[in-house]
Automatic annotation (TrEMBL):
GO terms for biological process, alphabetical: double-strand break repair; mitotic intra-S DNA damage checkpoint signaling; replication fork processing; resolution of meiotic recombination intermediates
Organism: Schistocephalus solidus
UniProt subcellular location: Nucleus
GO function term, MF aspect, one: crossover junction DNA endonuclease activity
Superkingdom field: Eukaryota
Protein's recorded name: Crossover junction endonuclease EME1
Entry GO CC: Holliday junction resolvase complex; nucleus
Amino acid sequence: MNKAGGPARERAKRGKSNAATLHHLKYSHRLVTCSFDKTLLFQPHGFISALTTRLDCATAVAAGKGGGTKLPEWVLPPHPPPIFPLDPALHGVDGPVPLPMSVTWQRHTPVDMPDGAVCLTASEEPDVLLLLQQDVCKRLLTTDPESNPHFRDLVASVRSLNRPVSIIFFIKPSQARSPLFEVIAKLQVDHGVRGVQQVSSVEDLATIVCNYTKAICQRPFKEGRMEATDGFSFLPSTIKRGLACSAASRLRGGGGFRFPRRDLVCAGAQTAEEAEKLWESAVRAWVHRTWLSQLGQWHGVTGEIATAIASVYPTPRALFEAIWQGSDENSSLDAVQEKATTMLAALPIRRGAGVLATQNRLGPQLARRIVTFFTSPDPLDEGAS
């Protein structure tokens, strides 16, 4: 019996190994199909050709140097096509292409078979990308959005899906933008549309659809990266150094930059006084991490600079009060900014450690940008970025 079962076990083991092989980034683009309304085969003209070219390039890049873009021979047919045209609404709101001029994606998951082969089972990704062409855009812009029946129909269609929807406006460059901005704002703020983009060429449209496809292909490989020890590997090294203690605390506790939960923080406290101290310490640590993160977003702020600023001014409020200290309603903004810039420019910045440690000052250029951010009444002031 054992001899007879040996080959079967070997085949089953080989099937599991083969299925695991497909869970690799180089096969990610071969296991996702981009489905779309078959109308897109004909309009806008040239879209499918441009999209196919970009998808082929993305698949080749994912496969890597010397890697093939085809699935191995032990994967049972049918193999998923990279693109697939469909009649809209043919499979209901939960299926592929639920709306006219929409794009959706299907993921094909490897399943090992007893004979060592691998079959693929399809599942629908929730994301929907909706293309609105010139004629639809004109109807949406005829009147105020809330009183426009075409706008209400669009919103009703999007809400009926109960899926994350993004919209692309395919418009001419010369079309008036102000009414369109109002439509975009209402779609995102009031009606939960995930993203809205505007394009005026077939090439740009194909690039956006390709980028969405690439993101969905790589989704399984990126979902857990923020919980991994190298979760911040995509950030510049200068920012990573400033967030080192923040990242370490985040990764150990798994809490991210979310506000701490009091019941979890105080779970091990023996007395009410000890619980209060633990809670205050957790809140201060959260404020410090968040402040470091915000400082790291300024262009030119390295990890050492962010740490130096946060050590002297532990919160944004502390820095704000220091900038405005000694001023009153009679003080001019220029005088306040000049005084604060001088103060902040003298902040010592320590780099390195031990005998290699050096120390210099923040300097007026970066100090002026930070001060401008906290004092300028103009939200578009370029000097604050």
